[in-house]
Amino acid sequence: MEEARQRGHVAQQAHPARSLVYGPVPSRRLGASLGVDVVPLKVCSYDCIYCQLGPTRTLTTERSQFFPVGTILAEVERRLRLWPPPDVITLAGSGEPTLYAGIGALIEGIKKITSTRVALLTNGALFHRADVRAEAAHADIVLPSLDAGDEAMFSLVNRSAPGLTLGTVVDGLSTFRREYGGEIWLEVMVVAGINDTPRQILPITRLASRIAPDRVQLNTPVRPTFDERAVPVPTARLADLAGLFSPTAEVVVERTELSDGGAERRAPEALEVLELLRRRPCTLEDIATGLSLHANAVVKTLADLVHRGEVHRILRDGKVFWRTIAEPSCPTGKGGR
User: Fold this and answer.
1) What's this model's pTM, rounded to 2 decimal places?
2) What band does 275 get if pLDDT is binned at 50, 70 and 90?
3) Of 51, 74, 155, 205, whose CB has the highest number of CB atoms within 10 Å?
4) d(CA 191, CA 12)
């Protein structure tokens, strides 16, 4: 009954009055990333404590074709015509993209209209499924996450849907590595006071060796999150922990300058700024560089959005981020903790 109730909630969200394509956003890992949303807001198989979008509303492992593939492809094609090509097109957005049952066809469709690389940003939870592995294999880069070295830490940090275990996740990613010839970039999100000691990281290094990614990248939640336990780790600490991996992991650093293909800066549209902030908190510089906008004009647009009660500012480690006003959590979701 609970699963049926969740399916009903997903169906209600499946036709949102907002764009499915957003950005480009300035990504610390990928550069100028054109984001593609393939699931409704916070439909996910995890409820991670560090998620910048807030608690998971529908915690599930059930896949569905939430939006028509053609609808998404039309939005991608329109966005690519309007602005210079991004560094990468990333399937990510408001939830776990592998829950979208049309993801393989979508990636194939994107590749027919552009030579830009396609990245799949995923928590990696469903790679024990052969259908997910086969569809994900169409991407040029797959970026799964691994934030825990044992089941207890997995339960604390990722808070997965029922039936998922860390062992299942690692086995699935290991199998995908054997089948997939593209690049795998494994992200480890390190949270201060949670999983930031050598004793906690060493088990992750052993599991990462089983997965055998092309890169291991240590990250930390520098953007505002809804769970106050998600505190960032200093860069020096990340560098020390990176040395525990073999080969040494990369420390992800903040990117503030993105190429815009020489395009002239332009005035912003309030909707495109709002669409970007719905997916992730951003600084003024993030918005201006990612969308190729005039910074002064962005300031005016943000002021208008604040006046309309749609965005607000948050201070995190001395930096000002802008974020949309949180919508109330749906009472039928399992992840509202």
Assistant:
1) 0.76
2) confident
3) 51
4) 34
